[in-house]
TrEMBL record:
InterPro entries: Flavoprotein-like_sf, FMN_Rdtase-like_dom, NAD(P)H-dep_reductase. Residues 4-149 form the NADPH-dependent FMN reductase-like domain. One of its GO terms (cellular component) is cytosol. Signal peptide: none annotated. One of its GO terms (molecular function) is oxidoreductase activity. This is FMN reductase. It comes from Skermanella aerolata. Gene3D superfamilies: 3.40.50.360.
């Protein structure tokens, strides 16, 4: 049974390095794993009133896509030492209903990318905390932190083979977690 992964990028910028990384993973995994990207452009600011009365279709679609996936790859830029607001907001939508959200128990691989030599490591720490709060099954290692990303992405693709292989090795850990989970609930 083909594994279905969902990729979410915390950057909605057209030339986003983070989205370029996801796109490259998608292409490298073709034929082995089905990685679908869910763009966060249309997710409105989280409002509990809106959610209780009339959940916006974009947020409903995202919850559905997360629910139907076997695992998530979440990548974010670092904005002011944290994850992007776009991603945090999307995760707030994804976290409801509390304790039985589509993220609960979901295997999740985290990545960050930045032109800085720190590679967004502080944002990654925050993402781990946030996803743990909603009971996501965050893969412990490796931590995919891509530093100097502006020199590694060319024409919208991750062009640095070492970095791509490192990210793909992390995807293997995600797939191993998904297999373990499948065995335990089979
Ligand atoms: C940044 N950037 C940044 N980088 C970093 O390593 N640490 C940081 O704290 C910040 N803060 C920050 C705040 C804001 C508002 C912006 C717009 C940018 C730089 C950021 O890493 C860079 O713009 C990346 O290229 C953004 O990722 P995408 O859009 O290329 O995926």
């Amino acid at each position: 049974q083909t594994v279905r992964l969902l990729g979410m990028s915390g950057s909605i910028r057209g030339q986003s390095y983070c989205t370029a990384v996801l796109r490259s993973l998608q292409e490298s995994l073709t034929g082995r794993v089905d990685l679908t990207l869910f763009p966060l452009n249309d997710i409105p600011p989280y409002d509990p009133d809106l959610d209780s009365e009339n959940t916006p279709p974009s947020a409903r679609d995202m919850r559905q896509a997360i629910m139907e996936s076997d695992g998530l790859i979440v990548i974010s830029p670092e904005y002011n030492y944290g994850m992007s607001g776009v991603l945090k907001n999307a995760l707030d939508w994804a976290s409801r209903p509390a304790m039985r959200s589509p993220v609960k128990g979901k295997p999740i691989l985290l990545m960050t990318a930045s032109p800085a030599f720190t590679g967004g490591v502080r944002a990654q720490h925050e993402m781990r905390e946030t996803l743990s709060s909603m009971l996501g099954r965050v893969i412990a290692r490796p931590q995919v932190v891509i530093a100097g990303v502006h020199e590694k992405v060319k024409d919208g693709r991750l062009a640095d083979p070492d970095t791509l292989n490192f990210a793909l090795a992390a995807v293997d850990d995600l797939l191993a977690e998904i297999s373990l989970l499948r065995m335990s609930i089979a």
